[in-house]
Design a protein that fits this description.
Layout: H1 13-32, H2 37-51, H3 60-69, E1 73-75, E2 82-84, H4 86-101, E3 112-117, E4 120-129, H5 141-152, E5 165-173, E6 175-182, H6 195-212, E7 217-223, E8 227-230, H7 247-259, E9 265-272, E10 278-281, E11 284-287, H8 294-309, E12 314-318, H9 323-336, E13 339-342, H10 348-358
Parallel strand pairs: 6-7, 6-9, 9-12, 12-13
Antiparallel strand pairs: 1-2, 3-5, 4-5, 7-8, 10-11
Length: 365
């Protein structure tokens, strides 16, 4: 008598569709709960009860089991709690990249093309005669042999230096970027969530650099009363604090980081929704949230001027349109010789992507 035959279970189309639908919601909820898996699943369960997302063939129990089996959540053996894995964090970044910048293919060797020729990675259509010092991998053998046949004939073949033909390569640049994110309390005030779009854009930018420009560097810092660096894996779960806005501290830290980077091309992107309102003095803070405090503004402008002397442009993305805020941003931008955008939340990603791509400077050294 023949026994049972077991094979690997492969989910059907309906089950896979159910998982993907729940997964998209789960990833969004996970960001709102700052990485609390239990709370995100509880919210998802409430949404399911209200809107009947699941069905008899695929329910919440199946989804939770799939999250564990596919490596998206891990269980603590001591207390049974769940935590997101690195795979989940990467999935959130990839989804942010697709949502904000579109589905971009990995290409090149991780550098930024310029209009100049030189030592690079990608051959272009320009050709010239060989010169002493040219790299051997630039020699076009097919064209060089063809030149030798024309110049010396086929019967007595020989290849001389004059026959060699070079294909030019595009010069590539590498860039070091510091992304500054305002986490002051105003980023969630006035009934508008500004921190979630800022996080989403930051995650998309991080994934863009990892996939398309792996030789670039991206450092992310947050600033409130103080400033400190965070890792990419912390981005989905970043929280706003009861902070004022110490832009000076953020810029000071950003410049310290960029001084240590070896890349010639350096830049700072700053996402904020308000004016500087705070300075650290000794063991305490000098704070003023009313109007434009010249003491705070002047110290901040000093940092903008210092960045200009270091040839580091600052691009400010202001998620607000108040006239007095625009006045500060104009003064700040003129001091740094940088750029400024007054963006709504929906257009933030488009602005940053466009500027990141356009801000490739030619390596002339």
């Amino acid at each position: 008598m023949r026994g049972h035959i077991f094979s690997k279970y492969i989910p059907g189309p309906e089950e896979e569709k159910g998982f993907e639908q729940l997964m998209n919601l789960f990833l969004q909820l996970l960001q709102y709960t700052n990485g609390d898996v239990a709370e995100a699943l509880d919210w998802l369960n409430q949404l399911d009860q209200q809107h009947q997302i699941t069905n008899d063939s695929y329910g919440m129990g199946n989804f939770i089991q799939d999250l564990k089996d596919r490596g998206y959540i891990k269980e603590n053996p001591n207390d049974g709690t769940f935590a997101p894995t690195s795979k989940t964090n990467q999935t959130i970044r990839k989804k942010s990249l697709e949502d904000v910048f579109g589905k971009l293919k990995k290409g090149g060797k991780g550098n930024h093309a310029t209009s100049k020729t030189g030592v690079g990675d990608e051959l272009n259509s320009d050709r010239r005669k060989f010169s002493f010092g040219d790299s051997l991998d630039q020699i076009d053998l097919t064209a060089s042999i063809h030149n030798a046949q024309i110049n010396h004939g086929i019967d007595d073949f020989k290849l001389t230096e004059d026959d060699l033909e070079i294909r030019e390569k595009d010069l590539k640049t590498q860039t070091s970027t510091v992304l500054m994110i305002d986490i002051s309390h105003s980023m969630i005030l006035y009934g508008e969530d500004r921190i979630t779009p800022a996080k989403k854009v930051a995650m998309a930018l991080a994934e863009l650099i990892k996939t398309r420009y792996p030789k670039d560097t991206l450092d992310i810092i947050v600033f409130g009363n103080d400033a400190w660096p965070i890792e990419v894996k912390d981005l989905p779960y970043l929280q706003v604090g009861p902070y004022h806005t110490n832009t000076y501290a953020g810029l000071e830290l950003a410049l310290d980081i960029l001084r240590k980077r070896k890349n010639i091309n350096k830049q700072i992107f700053m996402i904020t929704d308000g004016k500087p309102t705070c300075l650290k003095e000794g063991n305490g803070y000098y704070q003023n949230s009313f109007g434009l405090d010249r003491k705070i503004i002047n110290k901040t402008l000093t940092m903008a001027a210092q960045a200009r002397r270091l040839n580091i442009p600052i691009t400010t993305f202001m998620i607000a349109s108040d006239p007095y805020l625009q006045k500060f941003v104009r003064e700040f931008t003129e001091t740094n010789h940088g750029k400024a955008y007054y963006s709504n939340l929906n257009g933030l990603g488009d602005f940053i992507f466009e500027d990141f791509e356009k801000n490739r400077k030619k390596n002339t050294r």
